Amino acid sequence: MKSKLSVWTEILFISTRLGLTSFGGPVAHLAYFHEEYVQRKKWIDEKSYADLVALCQFLPGPASSQVGIGIGIQRGGIIGGILSFLGFTMPSVIFLIIFASVLDHFGLEDAGWISGLKIVAVAVVAQAVLGMSQKLAPDLERKTIALFALVATLLWQSAYTQIGAILLAGVAGFLLYRNQPILGKQSAHPFPVSKRVGVSCLALFFGLLLFLPVLNNVTSSKWIALMDSFYRSGSLVFGGGHVVLPLLEQEIVPAGWMSEEQFLAGYGAAQAVPGPLFTFAAYLGAIINGWQGGLFATFAIFLPAFLLVLGTLPFWNALRNHPKMTACLMGINASVVGILLSALYHPIFTSSIHTAAEFAMAAILFSMLYFWKFPPWVIVVTGALGGVLFL
């Protein structure tokens, strides 16, 4: 029988190794987790892993990080979940904080390779939109919901519009799909978190979501403003890490904390590192307030993921077999497609593509990613080199 310390040490070691090598986005991360935790280490069986993935796909937030947190919790309790998160996340956090420091110190926003990274963002988000639209908006009704979200967020560009579009899409999904039967109902499976802990975490999640904007309005603290912006963004992202881009852009750029050029340069750099895309927050926080800001922003944007995993694990068996909840999620996921398409146009395309050469490079990078299936780090290197040589 292993001691708790040895279990925690092993969780940290293996999750750190995954954090250093897991390129390719959340779908790839889930494949890496399956190979390591299910097949190699046998920490969790196939059924339990499938249940956990289903839960984290249902929740807002970074799905792959939430799966890693959940596996850590099942293996080593709440401390195991924290160590699993730290190992998987901190390598890319450290890299992006260093990148932000170099960018801020030397003022490289106008360098050719930075322009190339901005074009990488165009290709990556275009590929994400296309892939998500096929899965999340396959029928006419959900395509219409996506169109509504696209038009609304383009014409009224604010975080409140995005929140409203998500809420209205959930209502539309409920009205359209509430009577649709759930195929293949899942059997119950126990999770090692009590309902009392779950209720407490959910209460804290919603309490912070409601209280932080009020606190931000009555104080002038930059730390409170950072906490509010990044916590809210981490709480409202359905559909994966790419969707955090428009929420963060609306929070960060209009506030004058950085330029769109700095914002998109960091987003391009985030594609080059392993681990979750939510670590983009580390770059933003470091640009705003140094390395302390980078660590604080990372904590703020991932805190909702922790609270939601701990809060919903005890109730997941009932939720996933509830047709009305599934119907709401179908509408919400469709709205994500429209919100991401809106972000692809502005700020990404409008800030990155100004010439025929830049559009041609974006087309080449998109083709490499979508048709030829090159890994993301190759796209990033190619974009940076192309920016140096041709832009």
UniProtKB/TrEMBL annotation:
Q: Which GO terms describe its cellular component?
A: plasma membrane
A Pfam family this chain is assigned to: Chromate_transp
Superkingdom of the source? Bacteria
* One function term, GO molecular function aspect: chromate transmembrane transporter activity
Transmembrane segments in this chain: where? 12-33, 78-100, 112-132, 144-177, 197-218, 294-316, 328-349, 369-390
Annotated membrane topology is: Multi-pass membrane protein
Supply the InterPro entries for this chain: Chr_Tranpt_l_chain, Chromate_transpt
Q: Where in the cell is it found?
A: Cell membrane
Keywords of this protein's UniProt record, alphabetized? Answer: Cell membrane, Membrane, Transmembrane, Transmembrane helix
Q: Which family does it belong to?
A: Belongs to the chromate ion transporter (CHR) (TC 2.A.51) family.
Full protein name: Chromate transporter
